[in-house]
Amino acid sequence: MAEEKLLTVREVSILLHISEKEAMDLAENGTIPAYKVGGVYLRFKKDQVLELKKAKRGLHSKHELHENNPITGKLADFFYFNDFYIIAGLIIIVLLVIIFRGY
Predict the structure, then answer these.
(1) What SS3 class is residue 90?
(2) How much is the pLDDT for 32?
(3) Could you count the other beta carbons within 10 Å of the beta carbon of residue 72?
(4) In the chain, where does the domain assigned CATH 1.10.1660.10 lie?
(5) What percent of the chain has pLDDT over 90?
(6) What's the first-to-final CA gap in the chain, in angstroms?
(7) Is the CATH number 2.170.120.12 carried by domain 1-57?
(8) Residues near 59 by Cβ (< 8 Å), separated by ≥ 6?
(9) Angle at 18 between CA 64 and CA 57, to 5 degrees
(10) Is pTM beyond 0.70 here?
């Protein structure tokens, strides 16, 4: 009897074009049936993952959605990486206005 090879989280993420965290989230909420090997390692049956891929063509990661609209992706990345500096700059400007107006 040939054993069926179970897929790892990384293999599932590559197959579905999603991040590993998204694959783990899908397993946790029951979208993808997952099996624990040794009580620790998550594994997936390939045929079940392929069925999910066929059934849910709308399953995209955030990165893929930004690839369709490069301006949106660039803006999202800009604010993601620079949000602290933008907020800090605004706070400094507000404080300077308050100081120099003499409130």
Answers:
(1) helix
(2) 87
(3) 12
(4) 1-57
(5) 21
(6) 83
(7) no
(8) 16, 18, 52, 53
(9) 70
(10) no
